[in-house]
Amino acid sequence: MSTVSPQNRQNWEHAVVTGGAGFVGSHLCAALLESGTAVTCVDDFSTGRHSNVSTLRGRPGFTLVEADVSEELPVERPPDLVLHFASPASPADYLRMPLHTMETGSLGTRNALELAHACGARFLLASTSEVYGDPQQNPQDERYWGNVNPVGPRSVYDEAKRFGEALTTAHAEAQGTDTGIVRLFNTYGPGMRGHDGRAVPTFVRQALDGEPLTVTGDGNQTRSLCYVDDTVRGILAAAVHGMRGPVNIGNPTEITMLELARLVIRLTGSRSEIRFIERPTDDPAVRCPDISLARDKLGWEPQVAAEEGLRRTIDWFRADADADPEHAPLTAVHRSGNR
Hints:
Blueprint: E1 14-18, H1 23-34, E2 38-43, E3 62-66, E4 81-84, H2 91-96, H3 98-119, E5 122-128, H4 155-175, E6 179-184, E7 187-188, H5 199-208, E8 213-216, E9 222-224, E10 226-227, H6 228-241, E11 247-249, E12 254-256, H7 257-268, E13 274-277, H8 292-298, H9 306-319
Parallel strand pairs: 1-2, 1-4, 2-3, 4-5, 5-6, 6-11, 7-10, 8-13
Antiparallel strand pairs: 9-12
Helix pairs in contact: 1-6, 3-4, 5-7, 5-9, 7-9
C-alpha cells in the first residue's frame, strides 16, 4: 500500500474517496491517512476488493462505507476534499458492466460534485487517457480533443469519462464548485487484480503461472506505464494546487506491448512463451502523455523507472499467492489484455 505523502500538502481534515477500495483509490486512501487526513472510503465492491483496504480498517480516521455512488453518497461527516475515483477501469470490467460504468460516470459524478459543492470542498475527478481514444496525435497534450468512437465497445468508459469532465466543468462554471480534473494514463503496481484484463497484471500473472503471455495484434501498439506511487503524488499535487485542469498524470516513456511482455518474462525468470492473439476493436495504437503542464504547474514528474516498478509489482504478486481471490477469471481478459 502506498505511503506517499502529498508535497506541500494542504491540511485536509476529511477526504471522501469514491472507489476507495479499488486499485488507485486504495493507495490514495493510504497516502491521505499517512498525511494525517481522515478518510471516508466509499465503494460498492463491484470491482474494488476488501483486501485492498484490509490494512486500513481499524486505523484511526478511516471509515468504510459500502454504497453505489450512482445511487447515493451516505457520508456523515462533511469533507473538505472529494476525490471521485469510482468506476470500472479495466476493459474486462466495463465490457461486462456497461450500464453501471456509464451510471457511475454520470450520476455518480453528479452526486460527488453535489456533495463537494454543499460542503464547500475541493473536488477532483479521476478522468483517463481514454478520453483521447485512438489518438492521431502523439504524445497527447490536454488541448487535444481526441479520436473516440462514441458507439464502439470501449465507448461506455470513454464517453462516461468525457461526460464526467463536461459535467465537472459545468459545475465549476454554473455553481462555483472548486473542481479539478486529472487524466490518468496507464497506472500499475501492487494491489492490481491478476485477472483484471490490463497488460501488466495479465502478463505478470501469466509469467508467474508459466502460461503463454497473450499479446494482441503484432504487439507494436504502445502504452506509457506510470507506477502507482508516482500517480498518487501527481493526483494529490493537483488537489493541493487548486488548478481546474484537465492535467495529464502519466509517464511520458512509451513501451510496446511486445517489449513489455519480453521485459516481464526476463524480470520473472519465466520460461513462458509469447502468443499473439486477435487485437480488440478500437484498441489504441499509441498512448503517451505530454506532461509539460504537470511539470510546469505542479512540479511533478514520475520518478520510478519501468523496470524498478515492475520488480516491485512482481514481488507483490509473488508474495500474494491469492492476488485475485474475489474474482474468477474473466472470459474477456485476453481480448482486453493490452490496455
